[in-house]
Design goal:
Blueprint: H1 4-25, H2 35-40, E1 43-57, E2 64-78, E3 83-97, E4 111-123, E5 132-139, H3 159-163, E6 167-176, E7 181-187, E8 201-208, E9 215-226, E10 233-246, E11 249-260, E12 263-275, E13 281-294, E14 297-310, E15 316-327, E16 336-345
Antiparallel strand pairs: 1-2, 1-16, 2-3, 3-4, 4-5, 5-6, 6-7, 7-8, 8-9, 9-10, 10-11, 11-12, 12-13, 13-14, 14-15, 15-16
Length: 346
């Protein structure tokens, strides 16, 4: 485990400095959900988050595990007369067990690590919501993932495999207007950890119709020199995403095209999901396709995923997913994978 205290301390002090004025104000406690939120004061929501995920791939037959213990803080910084901004902090201590497939910041198959999923301050006092400024470790504003929070769930919209980044350190401008919402970010292109990897950077943005409508459409773009297992990759993407709700059913799709170091890349995602009347159960079917071109050759990957997510109350979240590779890139094996997760928030 790399010096994770070094990664926690600066960010913790930054959040404390930002939140302190609002904590002193002690405004309304209408969002308080538990004694921790009440103790913090102000417009605060706070939850502890405990989960364990098991993965069983058919290739090895050996289970892999990922445990997470963290917190989720949402605090509205206010003066006596108005809201100034919002602090969002999601920090997690992770435990990897026999994790042969793992993120780059994990140093081995059996490792402990600390990570900030999200750590931002969104300054909202400039306007009535159409122009805000966000800074910190923020999620890349791109595609379907921007309208759904898949952090800590099995349901995923492949943002990291597509861009090489799911969240990054930097700043963004964002806003909501009557007919559309948007976010444009400029970040360091380094991913989870604060470190110097050369002249890396990333520019990313999405503009779309309001995400609370039955028909949602968005246009996204990304460009940068970003982190990879080897040298920096010059990566460009342009994407379009669509969501259509029809009663209990929702159809989602995303198409993303671009290049890595001038080699063409394409990713397509389609999902059909169903939610029961009391919104405790979701069942979904996903089809994921990727195409990559190199030296005049085009290789492809195609994967199906069938999943279910059960939330009987505000605390428990039980989910499982079956994944089957239909087509894989050269030198890879087709794999059937079973994934299950138990999550408890309190």
């Amino acid at each position: 485990m790399t010096s994770w205290l070094f990664r926690i301390t600066p960010s913790a002090f930054a959040i404390a400095a930002i939140a302190a004025p609002a904590l002193a104000q002690g405004a309304s406690t209408q969002w308080s959900q538990n004694p921790v939120a009440d103790w913090l004061g102000g417009n605060t929501r706070f939850a502890l988050d405990l989960s364990y995920r098991g993965t069983l791939p058919s290739v090895t037959g050996k289970p892999m595990g990922l445990g997470a213990l963290g917190f989720d803080l949402h605090h509205v910084v206010s003066t006596a007369t108005r809201d100034v901004g919002t602090v969002t902090a999601q920090g997690y201590l992770l435990r990897f067990d026999n994790a042969n497939m793992r993120p780059g910041f994990a140093e081995g198959p059996d490792d402990w690590d600390w990570t900030w999923r999200i750590l931002t301050f969104n300054y909202t006092a400039l306007t009535d919501g159409w122009l805000n400024i966000k800074a910190g470790h923020l999620e890349m504003p791109y595609g379907l993932e921007w309208t759904f929070d898949s952090n800590g769930t099995l349901r995923d919209y492949q943002l990291s495999p597509n861009l090489g980044l799911k969240a990054d350190w930097g700043v963004s401008v964002n806003g909501v207007l009557p007919d559309f919402e948007y976010e444009v970010s400029v970040t360091r292109g380094i991913g989870m950890e604060i470190r110097d990897i050369g002249d890396s950077y990333a520019v990313c943005g999405r503009v779309g119709t309001p995400s609370d409508r039955q028909l949602v459409m968005g246009l996204s773009a990304f460009h940068g020199d970003v982190i990879s297992p080897g040298p920096l990759v010059n990566r460009t993407r342009v994407g379009v995403d669509v969501q259509r709700q029809l009663g209990a059913w929702t159809l989602l799709g995303e198409l993303s095209v671009g290049d890595d170091n001038d080699d063409a890349r394409t990713q397509a995602i389609a999902e059909l999901n169903w939610v029961n009347n009391d919104e405790t159960l979701m069942v979904y079917l996903q089809d994921i396709g990727r195409w990559r071109e190199s030296s005049g050759n085009t290789d492809s990957l195609n994967r199906l995923a069938l999943g279910a997510q059960y939330r009987p109350d505000n605390n428990w979240d039980l989910s499982a997913e079956l994944r089957q590779d239909l087509e894989v890139f050269p030198d890879a094996e087709r794999v059937f994978t079973l994934v299950a997760q138990v999550r408890y928030r309190f």
